[in-house]
Design a protein that fits this description.
single chain, 296 residues, alpha+beta, 3-stranded antiparallel sheet, 5 helices
Length: 296
């Protein structure tokens, strides 16, 4: 099916260009001292937890979100702050096959990117309705169209909250930073509809398969756990639990502001004296090339 660009849809071309220029300039001008300082200040690991560095069998991925009454929430060392949420109806791969995210229960085992399984610790739920003249930007789901990432990934249209990160090229990239207005674009519901999101929490930050695409699980922080309508359930299940910071599964690229993006690149081991490879730009280029192919 061809995809047609709606000129009214927001694009992030300028942001991508800014990130690329900032990274390139930083690489040329930074000193070894800056490299060391930047890497030591970034609170995430340089690569995926298992050192795999890829997105599974097809080399692609799918899958952070926004929460709270105003559609946004804070974060702490995660991919953009806020909850990482799947829209109701999203199929998640479990050890018993695919299940709709709204049907997942505490204790169900989801399949991780590496093929192992992990039990679900909790499933958070959020419901949003339209307030005012238009839907809030931080709430509107972003659609990753079928095959938008190439190699048949995702298998069906995948709908994520704007801050939900996909695992691409060995890094996490928020879906809102991948918007191209065609194969990846926000899709606002009708005025009288509700938006229902679900966040899948595991014991550690991981990547799971949603509609066949690699997507991060919920990355909790002190400022985003209690933004869910069923947070009381979490409190009952884990009363008195010591909430320690959760390590990010992989480096996050695409942060607002070129410096955060540059620090992430430096943490990945890029030299400050030679041009650096940017997995974010590579992913955007591949997605745009795939969009052109689908529209042909």
């Amino acid at each position: 099916m061809p995809y047609f660009q709606d000129p009214n849809l927001p694009r992030n071309t300028a942001r991508r260009r800014f990130l690329g220029v900032a990274a390139a300039a930083g690489a040329r001008l930074a000193s070894v001292a800056v490299l060391t300082m930047a890497a030591s200040s970034l609170p995430v690991r340089a690569g995926p937890r298992n050192g795999n560095g890829n997105s599974g069998g097809n080399g692609n991925s799918g899958g952070n979100g926004n929460s709270g009454g105003n559609g946004n929430s804070g974060g702490n060392g995660n991919s953009g702050g806020g909850a990482q949420c799947f829209l109701r109806g999203t199929s998640i791969l479990t050890d018993c096959g695919e299940k709709r995210v709204e049907d997942l229960q505490t204790g169900d085992r989801v399949v991780l990117l590496e093929g192992e399984t992990s039990p679900i610790k909790w499933v958070g739920r959020q419901v949003f309705t339209k307030r005012g003249a238009c839907w809030q930007e931080g709430v509107v789901p972003i659609r990753v169209a079928r095959d938008a990432l190439g190699d048949g990934t995702p298998r069906s249209d995948l709908y994520l909250s704007p801050g939900h990160a996909l695992f691409l090229n060995g890094v996490l990239i928020r879906v809102k930073d991948l918007v191209n207005g065609t194969t990846i674009a926000p899709i606002a519901p009708c005025d009288d509809m509700t938006i229902e999101y679900y966040a899948v929490l595991l014991a550690t930050h991981q990547v799971i398969l949603a509609e066949g695409a690699a997507a991060e699980t919920f990355h909790p922080s002190d400022s985003n756990r209690d933004n869910f309508g069923n947070f009381a359930e979490y409190e009952r299940l884990y009363a008195g639990e010591l909430r320690e910071p959760m390590t990010s599964y992989a480096t996050v690229l695409g942060e607002e502001g070129g410096w955060q993006h540059l620090k992430a690149l430096l943490l990945l081991g890029a030299s400050p004296l030679v041009p650096m490879r940017d997995p974010f730009e590579d992913a955007c280029g591949k997605i745009n090339a795939q969009a052109k192919e689908l529209s042909a």
